[in-house]
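pasting for ref
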Amino acid sequence: MPVQQAPASPEEARFNPEVRETLYTVIVSKTPHISDPAMKNLFQNKNARLILFSKYPVSGKAKTRLIPALGPAGAAELQKQMAEKIVRTSTQFIDSRDIDMEICFEGGTKKKMKAWLGAVPRYSHQIPGDIGIRMHRAMANAFLSGCSRVVLIGTDIPDISETVLEQAFFNLTNNDLVLGPSTDGGYWLIGLNRPCADLFQGITWGTSSVFEQTLHIARKHHLKYQLLDPLTDIDTVNNLKKIYLKKALAKPYISVIIPTLNEADHIAAAIENATHPDSEIIVVDGGSTDDTIETAKKNGAQVITGPKGRARQQNIGAKRALGRVLLFLHSDTLLPLNYISYVFDTLMDRRVAMGAFQFKTDFSHPFMKLVELGANIRSQYFGLPYGDQALFLYKSLFDSMNGFPEVAIAEDFFFVQKLSTLGKIHIVPVPIITSGRRWKIRGPIRTWLINTIILGGCKIGISPEKLKSLYRLPKPKA
């Protein structure tokens, strides 16, 4: 590709050590919260830096123009996946080169960013202001720390590769400016070998004229520049359709799987409560003789029939599921409002294997307060939530574990126990509301004792088949 350039003027000479020292003095004097030792440490960095501009994904607030096609969590999940891909590419790129990497982010915290993307060389918050102010400050800080070449990219360009990053840094050895134009009229990469604040001023950001306005300023300042090949950032449904298969767009983010057996009185509320633009509801019935199946269909759920057994029914539902995430919901349990936001945020932490909600029943009884407290302590501090707390995890992980063990009882206990060896079990600090009918029928103290005996029996190796009779409710008298 031919080099497009303009002659450099004397006043636009390279950013030399004397000028850098002057800038250091000015910024330190105007930034009292930055200590001299901290600034001196910055000057010991590598001489080139790759800056990734990123945003912590939040369901409903990320890639909002894609929500009609993907749903709130689906759009946030796309942003998450694209950022993860670019971070992997960038990490591989700098691994064997004298190049530093920084993730400059907005939203979230450093703790959340590290839990999501891992321990990259450095994280920093984007300062307030428009995108031009934020990019200029991030690049200026890199030059202030001693860098002689700085490249900044976004995290919504799927086609960014090590090759194009190599081209960008290589071209900065002979050019003042490198730009990667976007097909929408903006740019997906900007690289500089010295600060130039004017490149980020007077630009109508978010329009199709950003690239041309930037080039005009570069020519006005006699900057020697190089253009890279155009790439497409994913901001609209049309962009999405060009790069991703239409089939992928139809998939829900989460599949809510509800095993049932004669649950006509509860299933409608459970389905209505779980229905969301990001979800599909799959009811797996084990042979109901009441109106469970008809009620589930009437309320918009997919219905599958199969052999009785909660573990078996949940596994059948998981095989049919299209969602990236699976959530297993008891038919007498109501999820909290905006539950998908809690699920999405929980699974942003790459250390988390599975999540669940706090336990609460609709049975108002003094002893139940103790039961709920004990269940939540067990879940939070010992990592042992039960199935009535709406367990959720990535489908890929569930499949790799071959699903729930198909035992007569306590499949949730065995599943969680095995899963806890693979990662963290996170308890969302918001309760689900489950029916207290079982506690009402048997009495809260007796039910608690039975549950404790079953859990203890499973822990010492008693067969679930022998314990299942304890769990059965007495048949109602005629």
